[in-house]
């Protein structure tokens, strides 16, 4: 059921985006740099694009910046999780080594029963 709701939602978003694109097909001139700076650097200062490309491009750039910002913000949580994972692996190795030392003089069957119980 939730899969169909997701498909319906994605279809609705697609219809809205297509409607926005069709309504904003007019060409606009996008100034990339101020006139003086563009002349100083010797690069083209403007580009003509349909308005919907400018709108969707702004949305995509915003999403990418948001994802990068969130990834950087969560770095401390990922580092802490990795540290705890290393600590758990070390403690498991110590436990295994301690059990092996404890069970080295025992009968194999008794050692297996101790580990199982």
From TrEMBL:
Name used for this protein in its record: Lipopolysaccharide assembly protein A domain-containing protein
Coiled coil segments of this chain: 74-108
Xref: InterPro entries: LapA_dom (IPR010445)
Presence of keyword Membrane: yes
Keywords, alphabetical: Cell membrane, Coiled coil, Membrane, Transmembrane, Transmembrane helix
Transmembrane segments: 47-69
Residues of the Lipopolysaccharide assembly protein A domain: 24-95
Gene Ontology cellular component list: plasma membrane
């Amino acid at each position: 059921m939730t899969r169909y709701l997701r498909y319906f939602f994605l279809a609705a978003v697609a219809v809205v985006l297509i409607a926005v694109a069709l309504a904003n097909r007019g060409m606009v001139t996008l100034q990339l740099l101020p006139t003086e700076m563009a002349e100083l650097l010797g690069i083209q200062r403007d580009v003509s694009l349909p308005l919907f490309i400018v709108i969707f491009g702004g949305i995509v750039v915003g999403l990418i910046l948001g994802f990068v910002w969130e990834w950087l913000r969560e770095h401390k949580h990922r580092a802490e999780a990795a540290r705890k994972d290393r600590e758990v692996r070390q403690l498991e190795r110590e436990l295994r080594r301690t059990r092996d030392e404890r069970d080295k003089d025992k009968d194999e069957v008794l050692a297996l029963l101790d580990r199982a119980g």
